[in-house]
Every structure is written in C-alpha cells, then in structure tokens.
TrEMBL record:
Organism encoding this protein: Almyronema epifaneia S1
Name used for this protein in its record: DUF948 domain-containing protein
Composition bias, Low complexity: 167-184
Sequence ranges of Basic residues compositional bias: 122-131
Superkingdom to which the source organism belongs: Bacteria
PANTHER family (alphabetical): CHITINASE-LIKE PROTEIN (PTHR33825), TRANSMEMBRANE PROTEIN (PTHR33825:SF5)
Positions of region (Disordered): 119-191
C-alpha cells in the first residue's frame, strides 16, 4: 500500500469511470435541453409574428374605449342638461297651474259677486243708501258734539222744540239719555 503510483492510477481510473457514467447520464438530459431550446425558438418566432398585430389590435381597442368613454361622458352631460331643462319646465308648468288656479278662483268669486249684485232687490239698495246717509249723519253729529258741545245741545234743543207736522200738540222735550234709548238701532246688513 505504499505504492503511490498505484493509488494515483486507481484514482484516475475511478475518475474516468465516473466522468463516463456522468456523460452517459447527461446525454438524454442534453438532448431534452436541445429539444426545449428548439421549442423555445419556435415559440419566440411565433410570438415575433403574432405579437405585433395583437399589440396593434389592443392599442386600437384602447383608443376605441377612450372614444366611447368620451362619447359616454358627453352623452351623460347632455342627458343631465336635458333633465335640468325638464325639471325647470315642470317647475314652470306647476307655477303656471297655480296662477291659473288663482285666476280661476278670482274669476268665479267676481262672477258670484256680480251675480249677487245684479240679482238683489232694489229695496235693499235703497236701504243701504239710507244706512250710509244715517251713518254719515251720526258721524257728523259726533264730530259736532265733540267740536262744539254747546252748539250741539242748542241744535238738539231747537229740533225738539220744533213741532212735528203730524202731531197737533207739542211733546215735552226728552232727555238725551231717553232719546238714545228710544232710537231703534239698525241691524248690520250681511251679504
């Protein structure tokens, strides 16, 4: 065992045998690797032929989608504008309907008032005129009473002392309180 040449020869032999075994085992793997390389080469060739048109189609599709999006935004803007116009038209129609309702009511109230005025009796017209004259006379009397109290008392005394055309005897003068109590009040007229 002491011969180093023997050991050197033996180790070279073992090395050669292991290299041969490794080469025999690596041959099928290298063949498969060559097949994979050829397959990849064909794939790259196909991609080189097919990819540019596909990328061009994708680019065109993106441009069309952008145009459609712009068209949709424009359509949405127009639809929104139309909705606002319709809303404004509805508001105006509602406002005009309210005005028409108000005018119709006013017209009918005016017609009713005109009908009542034309159909009431002439006596009532005269009594209203008389009531207006009496009210004016009362207002004048009240104004005169507060303006000149002595003149008012003298005017009343003069009217009491004057004989009535229908009666032959003169009635004694009545006190102002009894006159107010005896004066019949006119009921207010209601329509």
């Amino acid at each position: 065992m002491a011969d180093p040449l023997l050991w050197l020869g033996l180790s070279i032999l073992l090395l050669a045998m292991s290299l041969t075994a490794m080469m025999l085992m690596a041959l099928p793997a290298l063949r498969e690797l060559a097949k994979a390389a050829r397959s990849a080469e064909r794939l790259f060739e196909t991609l080189n032929q097919e990819l540019p048109p596909t990328l061009e189609a994708l680019r065109l599709t993106g441009a069309e989608i952008a145009e459609l999006t712009d068209g949709m935004s424009d359509g949405i803007y127009r639809a929104n504008h139309m909705v606002k116009q319709v809303d404004q038209s509805l508001y105006q129609a509602h406002h005009q309907a309210k005005q028409a309702e108000h005018l119709t009511r006013s017209f009918w109230v005016g017609c009713k008032a005109a009908w009542k005025t034309f159909t009431r009796s002439p006596q009532r017209k005269r009594s209203r005129r008389q009531a207006a004259r009496q009210a004016q006379a009362r207002q004048k009397l009240t104004r005169d009473r507060y303006a000149h109290p002595s003149a008012t008392l003298q005017a009343k005394a003069a009217t009491r002392d004057r004989p009535n055309a229908d009666s032959t005897s003169t009635a004694p003068p009545a006190s102002p309180r009894s006159e107010a109590a005896e004066t019949p009040r006119q009921p207010p007229e209601s329509d």
